[in-house]
Write a structure and sequence with these properties.
Blueprint (H helix, E strand, L loop, with lengths): L2 H39 L8 H5 L4 H11 L17 H4 E6 L10 H12 L4 E6 L5 E5 L5 H19 L3 E6 L17 H11 L11
Length: 210
């Protein structure tokens, strides 16, 4: 065999060795990448230190645990109150049949009779309206919703004996005065709606007036 042939064979062998080493390195790199990916996606678990394991609970922790296990004392079905009670929230309307009240009608006996019937001084004053209805004004922060919920029957019995021609009672409703510039009664309700919304800022009627 010539020297040239032997040199060629050695080159082929060296090339094959290098290929085997490259393949082995490639396999190791792939394995390391898999291990690195597993470490970055799996959070490391932290174990408490011996000092944390042996530390007894503090008084604050004991109090918090005691409060969390204490049953709630909030009464069920509690009526939610608005932040500020308006006059509407204080007013119960006693509806009458439209006839005028007698001239000698006195608000004090009516107020005393109602408070005696409900066994609590919840009605502060009484007012008569121009259309011959009667307003019961509740005291302080007493909403009419609460009074009507718990004392409607007692109030009905009291006004039946003190207010003639009373036909019912209800919570007052919010109402507004609007400006109408002398629209004829023959005008359509669409014209009335346009007039109300045009000359009364902030008012929008959801449907035609009736």
């Amino acid at each position: 065999m010539s020297n040239r042939q032997r040199g060629r064979d050695c080159l082929i062998q060296d090339t094959q060795v290098l290929k085997d080493e490259v393949a082995a390195l490639t396999s190791k790199v792939a394995l390391l990448e898999i291990q690195l990916q597993h470490q970055t996606t799996t959070p490391a678990s932290t174990l408490p230190t011996p000092q944390q394991q042996q530390q007894p609970p503090t008084w604050a922790q004991k109090a918090a645990k005691l409060l969390s296990s204490k049953p709630s004392t909030t009464p069920p079905n509690k009526i939610a109150l608005p932040a500020v009670l308006t006059k509407c929230d204080h007013t119960i309307v006693i509806e009458r049949d439209g006839t005028a009240l007698p001239d000698n009608t006195n608000t004090l006996p009516i107020c005393d009779a109602i408070n005696s019937a409900i066994k609590k001084p919840l009605i502060a004053t009484i007012e008569f309206t121009t259309n011959h209805h009667v307003f019961l004004i509740t005291k302080d922060n007493t909403p009419t919703t609460s009074v009507l919920k718990y004392h409607r029957f007692a109030i009905e019995e009291a006004i039946r004996a003190t207010i003639p021609a009373a036909i019912g009672l209800r919570k007052d409703k919010i109402w507004h005065k609007v400006i109408l510039r002398g629209i004829p009664t023959t005008s359509s309700f669409t014209t009335i709606q346009a007039e109300v919304e045009e000359f009364n800022s902030g008012i929008h009627l959801p449907h035609l007036p009736r």
